[in-house]
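Reviewers of the previous submission asked for a worked example of the structure-prediction workflow described in the proposal, so we include one complete record here. The input consisted solely of the amino acid sequence. No template or homolog information was supplied to the procedure at any stage.
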Amino acid sequence: MKATVCLSAIVMSVGLTAASTASAAIDPSTERVLVKVCKALKTDNQARLRHVLKRNHLGYRQIAEGLRCNGQDALTFAMSHGAEGSAYYLARKANIDMSTLVAKLD
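From that input alone, the workflow returned the following structure tokens.
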């Protein structure tokens, strides 16, 4: 439970501005988990995304609102890499309206 809370706090801190993220040191094991989430988003593999999130006790909303992949939020990152399926899946599970994101990208 304590590790989940710490991991949640780290995931949320990753979503802060790039300057604060660059200055904060992230535990290497936590970084590996977050990189796996970004890779799952990029490959448009919803089963892989679900597996990584469930195995590491991460919430869909935490990832959608807090994770930054290559300087982009998770949904924008997925859409920019042509992984619309993963983006829509994450948005649906996190209860986020995708129409605003699609309009922003166009």
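Helices lie at 2-14, 18-23, 28-42, 46-55, 60-66, 74-80, 84-94, 98-105. We consider this example representative of the routine output the project will generate in years two and three.
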